[in-house]
Amino acid sequence: MRIIIRYLTAVVLSVSVFNVAADNQPPSDQISFQVEADQEIENDRVSVVMKAYSENADPSKLADQINQAMRWGLDTAKKMTAIKVRTGAYQTYPVYSEKNKVQRWRGQQELILEGREVDKLSELVGTLQSRLQMQSMQFSVSPDARRKVQDVLIEEVLQAYKKRAELVSKSLGAAGYDIMNISIQTSGHIYPPPVRMESMRTVSKASVESPAMEAGTSRVSVQANGTIHLQR
Known about the structure:
Blueprint: E1 4-7, E2 29-42, E3 45-56, H1 59-77, E4 84-96, E5 102-115, H2 118-128, E6 133-140, H3 143-171, E7 176-191, E8 217-231
Antiparallel strand pairs: 1-2, 2-8, 3-5, 3-6, 4-5, 7-8
C-alpha cells in the first residue's frame, strides 16, 4: 500500500520573537507545524449484532419465546469455532393502548458475533436469520494489524517532519534548528462498504440467503505536531 505524506495547512508558521533576556542573549525564533502520513488498509474483522425479538400479551410467554430463540442462536453459532460469540443487552417493555393500558409486551436480546473469516460469518448469519433478526454489521481493522501499520507510519511521519524542519530552517536563513517539542497522534477512519441485509422481520428459513458482505478498507493516519527553534 502506498503511504501518503500530507503537509497540513501548507505548513502553519508561528514565529515568536522573545524579548532579550537579562543576560543579553540574542532573540530566538520558534516555528510550529504539522505533518501527516496515512495509509488505506483492508478491514480484517467484522462484527454482527443479531437479536431475538418477540411480542406477546403474556410477559412470561414472551420471555420464554426470546430465551428459546437465543438458546438456539447460541448453540448454532458456537458450532463455528472461528467466530467469537457473546450475548448483549436484554430488554422488555410494555406497549400501551390508546386508553393508556398495557396491551402487550415486547422484548429482545442481542447476540453478538465477531470474526475475521467473512465467508463463514456470512454463512452463519444466513442460518441465524431463520429465527433471529439482523440489527447491525460493522467492519474494522484488528488491533494487531492497526499497530503494525501505525509503526510504519510513525517512522515515515518523523522523517517527513525532519525534512520539513530542514526546509523551513533553510528558507528562513537559519544556520540550523533544534526540535523543542514534538507529539504524535494516531487515528483511523472506516469506510463502510454497502451491505445488503434482510428485512428486520423474521423470515422463513426457505427464503433466507447469506447476506452480502464486502469488508472494504479503513484509512489509518499518524500526525506529528511540534515546534522547532531556529539557530541564528
